[in-house]
Write a structure and sequence with these properties.
Blueprint: H1 10-17, H2 21-30, H3 45-55, H4 57-91, H5 107-119
């Protein structure tokens, strides 16, 4: 039983869901949705969705997932393209760096490095360590 867009009669849907047609009619009336005048008339999409959502939630979830598939495929493609573009931008190098070229660090980073170097403890040994035999 597919979950594609429903073009079914009230009678056929009742049979698929193993419900009385009157149960479906009462549910549609309670939601103020269009109720077919005859069990052999087709349901509107909105009515079909309301009935299936209430009486067969699993089928309704499958139906929703099928509706979302084209959108998700487009989003997946867009996300993959954006990732690829971002990687290309990150990895792009205008020119090869020269070996004799100095690396320029931002001034605040350089001053932090000097502070770290100044605070590093220097351990001096008065005597040479004794060798154990």
């Amino acid at each position: 039983m597919g979950t594609k867009s429903p073009q079914v009669t009230l009678f056929k849907l009742a049979k698929q869901l193993k419900l009385a047609t009157s149960t479906i009619q009462e549910h549609l009336e309670s939601l103020e949705l269009p109720v077919p005048s005859s069990p052999m008339k087709k349901l509107t999409l909105e009515s079909w969705e309301a009935v299936v959502e209430k009486f067969d939630p699993t089928r309704f979830r499958e139906y929703q997932q099928e509706l979302l598939k084209p959108d998700q495929a487009a989003e997946t493609t867009d996300a993959a393209d954006l990732r690829k573009q971002g990687l290309e931008e990150l990895l792009h190098v205008d020119e090869e760096p020269r070996q004799d070229e100095k690396i320029k660090l931002p001034k605040d980073l350089y001053s932090d490095l000097k502070i770290i170097q100044q605070r590093a403890p220097v351990v001096e040994m008065d005597e040479e360590p004794e060798e154990s035999s």
